[in-house]
Amino acid sequence: MFKLSRNGKFKFVSTKHNKQIFVTPLITDSHLHILGLGEKLSQPTLEKKKLSEIKSIIEEIVSKRPYKIVLRGWTEEFANPNKYFLDSINREIPIMLVRRCGHFAVVNSKVFESIDFSDSSNYVDFEEGKIKESAIDKFYKTFGPFTDVKNNYETSKKYLKNKGYGFVHSDDLHGIYKDNLPFVHDNEFFVYEKVAIKDYNELSKYYESGYFKEFKCVKIYLDGSLGARTALLLNKYNDFDTYGEKLWEDAELTSVVEFCEDNGLHLAAHAIGDGAIEQILRVFEKVNPKLRHRIIHAIVLRSNQIERIKKNNLIVDIQPQFIESDKVFIEDRLGERVKDAFRFYDLYSSQVPLFISSDAPVEEPDWLRDIKRLREIGIPYNYSLYQLTYGPEIIDNVDRQESMESNALIFQNDPFVEISQPKIYQTEN
């Protein structure tokens, strides 16, 4: 048989029957929200639902007398709910409907009766019941983020293992404490947790509480999403009078980067718009970090930014399925600047290291779909498959080559030439 080695080549290993099979480590999804994925798989989705359908879904849940309702997936192409719509269904139970991107939501009057949004009023439209970014976090901290944390994790794990995933880099500490994370002592499925912070003060509190004795990554959100027009752009949106949302000031962001450098922590920065990219590059060029850090998304990029990303030794974490999903609005948002979107091939050809992920629950994890999409834009199978297996090892330090002894993907044909659905070999611990 042939086993994929850390050097990126298949090495022939003589076996009793000399089977002509190709073996690789299990797949890594380097950016998702594993508890959020479980919630999505366990709850009704609002994707592609009209208002009448959303109303029926909520009414069915209300009949079960829950203490809160959180649903996700709506987009303006199908429905545009607001506070009045939700109030017409129920005013006694706090309800939040999260847009597909996760950066924008609508809530009913009960939420405003329960939460003081005065310190985040810039992110709230009280009349329409629309909230975004840190205001959404206030909902989670007040009412809790999930319906059933343990069930969410087990549901996600089963789903991911059945698709050939064995490792994920996740982001779950939104309204939940580390002691409540159900995967911390799970030895059969590896979760590399990113500790998401909204400011330097929160970073300090996590440090004082011992979070970084267990977790070695800091996650920051520099902007929102293109769909919700909260991604930060250098020029205004083509279809609205806004640049998006700037969530950090340079001085505080600099302190976070310096903290990560001083404490040996990996920084993962959510940055979708070229304005957010410009900010993090400006700070990196000031600090001149020695550690390896990561930009997640980087959907809108200028050419000189690609050069600077490489110069600063950064990894870019891309989501190939966004190419398809964002088609419905991206030209409206960017106009002629759409040529600056999804420059994944340009990053690859510039030798910027790429991680490949789904951002679930925004997208369903499907590495086979993603590897084929990247091949369509010129990124070869051998590069993508290696980055999906061995690539994240440089950050999470889990030995993928050793892991193949008990967990692996088995291809009948050379996947560097023709990619196909492999068999999944997994032993139970």
From TrEMBL:
Annotated ranges, domain Amidohydrolase: 22-369
InterPro entries the UniProt entry points to: Amidohydro_3 (IPR013108), Metal_Hydrolase (IPR032466)
Family annotation (Gene3D superfamilies): 3.10.310.70, Metal-dependent hydrolases
Signal peptide: none
Protein name per UniProt: Amidohydrolase 3 domain-containing protein
